[in-house]
Amino acid sequence: MEILETKYQPIYQRFNKPIVFTEVAYYSADGSATQQFGVYSSEISDFLPETVSVTSDWQEQADAYEAVLQAIAEKPWVQGTYSFGYSFMDHDCKGYSIRAKTAEEVLKSIYAQFNAAG
User: Fold this and answer.
1) Contacts of 83 (CB under 8 A, 6+ apart)
2) Taking the mean position of all CA atoms in its chain, how far away is CA 87?
3) What angle do CA 111, 114, 118 make, to 5 degrees?
4) What's the predicted TM-score (pTM) here?
5) Which pLDDT score, from 0 to 100, does residue 115 have?
6) Helical residues (DSSP H) of 1-118, grouped into ranges
7) What is the pLDDT of residue 89?
8) Can you tell me the distance from the alpha carbon of 65 to that of 109, in angstroms, rounded to the nearest whole number?
């Protein structure tokens, strides 16, 4: 909340234009909420062999999205967000795609809250 108010709200106030966050990114593996792995880490890659020491965690991904989007949805000057990952097909990956995962349902439910009062 502090980052929204100190970093992004002044931008909104300066330009008087609503903000859209184009990349909210949480992968669907254990450690997502703390961003243990980077975007190109082999442990969460959709294109490399699976790293068995890293477990899938769709709920952690969904919980991270829910926390961030609930905070963002409270700001009337934020128009919306996009997920960083949305695969073209359903597959059980540990990467950033939210397609057919718990996080996709979270996003659907919270998107309705953006600008609901307006």
Assistant:
1) 23, 24, 25, 65, 96, 98, 103, 107
2) 14
3) 145
4) 0.88
5) 66
6) 2-3, 9-15, 58-73, 102-111
7) 82
8) 11
DSSP single-letter state for residue 113: T
The parts of the chain modelled with pLDDT lower than 70 are 115-118
Tokens linked to 52: 């068995």
Which residue, chain included where needed, has tokens 């020491």? 53
Angstrom distance (rounded) from CA 86 to CA 25:
10
Res 46: pLDDT: 84
pLDDT score recorded for residue 50: 84
For the chain, give every domain's residue range: 2-6+19-111
Q: Sign of the C-alpha dihedral, residues 94, 82, 109, 26?
A: positive
Closest residue by Cα to residue 72 from 111, 118, 99? 111
